[in-house]
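Hi there, hope your week has been kind to you so far. Would you mind checking whether the tokens look sensible for this chain? I owe you a coffee for this, so here goes:
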Amino acid sequence: MGLKLKYHKFLIIGILFCITYHNANGQYSGTNLRGQIQYFNQYYNRYFPLTGAAVDLYYCPVPNQYILVSQSMTNQNGFYFFYTIRPGNYYIQVNRKKNYQITVIKIPYFNNQFNYNQFQDIPILYF
């Protein structure tokens, strides 16, 4: 009987831990990212937005391990967007040629509400 009681206590504590952990982590859905990619035009001697570029986001949990998280394309103004990205170290790869390292931070909620229009701005990437 004593073993059965210990098992039930362990089971209840485990269930409570899982529920608490899920609720604590379930409130934060991630950070939205936005940025722009520009390229240098030698004829005009200036930078222009790079349109239609493939933008891949890779997560880097440890050195030399890259996990594809999301993909995007630049719009007519060279902007790209990624939604609900967890904080951490990432690489942005443009047109499968050039890599840029970024760090995603946790953006705090306003009035405990997730704002889908709130972004972490990534500095301009020059391709």
